[in-house]
Write a structure and sequence with these properties.
- By secondary structure, the protein is an alpha/beta fold.
- The protein contains 13 helices and eight strands.
- The protein has an eight-stranded mixed β-sheet.
Length: 331
């Protein structure tokens, strides 16, 4: 592989104000506190109009989602959140508002055991459960027929978006255009990046909370005492993967959803990966070093951190603008 050279496009450069250029500031400010409150306030009307739909997948899988209908539109945008996020994450709601304002109908999908969906399935979520998403999209498009379908995913949701887009050739759903924002490309590298300081503490806490919530719905899970002993993401993975996934070790598990370059060559429709050089969680060196297919575009900004891309102190995100622009091309 050669050195990464960001793809030269006509995209307007993203340059946040100086106070928002630190990647950790971007990350924290984009997801908590003032921005979270502001986005909730801005989208209250849209949330009240959204309809909960439970989608059916293979092996009795059920996924929760929220459909925001739009009058006189033939375009539906499906949004996928990141690990331990949800359909109500600030970045999902912010994108929902921007895209809805431009005339798209929206479907916000929760992964298994994310949001308020722990009661829907007995088996636990893991990142290799692609059939959950492909089955849900098949059911979704049967229930909600539209002329154009677009898909956007953030972080782990970006990984799922890329895999889901590639898998459509073997499934009964269609994606016309996909965008992956800061997608997890190499899971083992991302886990290594997360295993430091604040990020590790945050994700260990969130993961434990999710697993404990599962036991309130399915008391046959009796790992509460084991969870008390694990302190790091490495501990969590070594406890969780051999016990609750089809994989015997972390290496084989991470490899199962690693998006190696030869896999990305299989993208059948226009797909854009957007990420930043200063992303501390999905390191830019993991991206493909060159276009692998005419269907794949890479956009790499200098700033933006991990899925944040806050462009001003009003807590507005440049990513919303890019999604609006890219998805306008499917209509």
């Amino acid at each position: 592989m050669t050195d990464l050279s960001p793809l030269k496009t006509a995209v307007e450069p993203f340059l946040p104000p100086r106070g928002l250029r630190n990647p950790h500031v971007q990350n924290i400010v984009s997801s908590v506190g003032l921005r979270k409150w502001l986005v909730k306030q801005r989208t209250q009307s849209l949330l009240s109009q959204s309809q909960e739909i439970i989608l059916q997948g293979p092996d009795s899988a059920r996924l929760q989602g929220f459909y925001l209908p739009q009058k006189n539109t033939d375009s539906l945008v499906i949004l996928l959140h990141g690990w331990e996020g949800s359909s109500d994450s600030a970045y999902i709601l912010s994108a929902t508002q921007a895209l809805f304002d431009q005339g798209h109908a929206i479907f916000r999908l929760n992964f298994r055991d994310h949001g308020d969906s722990h009661h829907l399935n007995q088996e636990l979520f893991n990142s290799t459960r692609l059939s959950d998403i492909t089955g849900a999209l098949t059911d979704l498009q049967q229930q909600l027929p539209h002329t154009h379908y677009s898909l956007a995913g953030f972080s782990l949701g970006g990984n799922f978006a890329l895999r889901t887009t590639m898998a459509q050739t073997n499934n009964a759903y269609r994606i016309d255009r996909a965008v992956a924002v800061c997608p997890v490309i190499c899971p083992s590298d991302t886990m290594e990046a997360l295993s430091k300081g604040f990020y590790e503490r945050y994700f260990v806490k969130k993961w434990k909370q999710s697993l404990l919530k599962k036991t309130t719905h399915f008391p046959e899970y009796t790992y509460q005492n084991q969870l008390k002993l694990v302190k790091t993401l490495k501990d969590m993975n070594e406890f969780f993967i051999p016990g609750y996934t089809p994989y015997s070790d972390t290496s084989s598990y991470f490899d199962a959803y690693h998006l190696r370059e030869n896999r990305l060559k299989e993208l059948p429709v226009p797909t854009t990966i957007i990420t930043s050089e200063d992303d501390p969680i999905v390191r830019v060196k993991m991206l493909p070093r060159q276009p692998l297919t005419d269907n794949l575009s890479l956009e790499v900004t200098r700033y933006g951190s991990h899925c944040a891309f806050l462009k001003n102190f009003k807590m507005q995100s440049w990513i919303d603008d890019r999604l609006v622009d890219l998805f306008s091309r499917t209509r």
